[in-house]
Write a structure and sequence with these properties.
Elements: H1 19-22, H2 31-44, H3 47-52, H4 63-73, E1 75-86, E2 93-103, E3 107-119, E4 122-131
Antiparallel strand pairs: 1-2, 2-3, 3-4
């Protein structure tokens, strides 16, 4: 029986990818791996992991309730890493630019340039800048992951 591929888009089996981070068996070694594991946590409802990997200075008392509500109303459809940068040598910062497709009522995109910091050997998400979504070319596959060409789907 084939194993399920990880939702993070790595093309690896979940058990050999983000699951080990979500279960606390291993820490993500890079900001990109943290970003991918946080995306997977959103798809699977790992609210405690999302809070634990948010930098403590940015946590709010209502995070658990807000994340739980958001996750219960959102279907995540795909993640694409556009760029991942590590800070300069001995700099414990990282930036990951990504696009995630999700659906609440209609498919939508989240395009963000996220900032991460490594503290005491652990990567944390800090915050991010929301960027405009990208528009595929008419003959490209639609970003909603329908399998149709963009012009036949959301490009009308």
């Amino acid at each position: 029986m084939p194993q399920e591929l990880c939702p993070c888009g790595s093309k690896k089996q979940t058990q050999y990818c983000c699951q080990m981070y979500l279960l606390g068996k291993k820490q993500p070694e890079t900001a990109e791996k943290l970003m991918r594991s946080r995306y997977t946590a959103f798809t699977r409802g790992y609210v405690d992991y999302l809070i634990a990997t948010l930098h403590p200075d940015y946590r709010q008392p209502n995070d658990h309730a807000e994340l739980t509500t958001s996750i219960s109303h959102t279907q995540w459809l795909g993640l694409q890493i556009i760029d991942a940068q590590k800070g300069k040598k001995n700099d414990n910062t990282g930036i990951v630019e990504f696009e995630a497709v999700y659906q609440i009522n209609e498919p939508q995109q989240l395009h963000e340039r996220s900032r991460f910091i490594k503290t005491e050997g652990q990567w944390f998400y800090v915050d991010g800048d929301i960027l405009p979504g990208t528009t595929p070319k008419p003959k490209d596959l639609c970003w909603c992951r329908s399998g149709q060409k963009y012009r036949q789907c959301h490009g009308m």
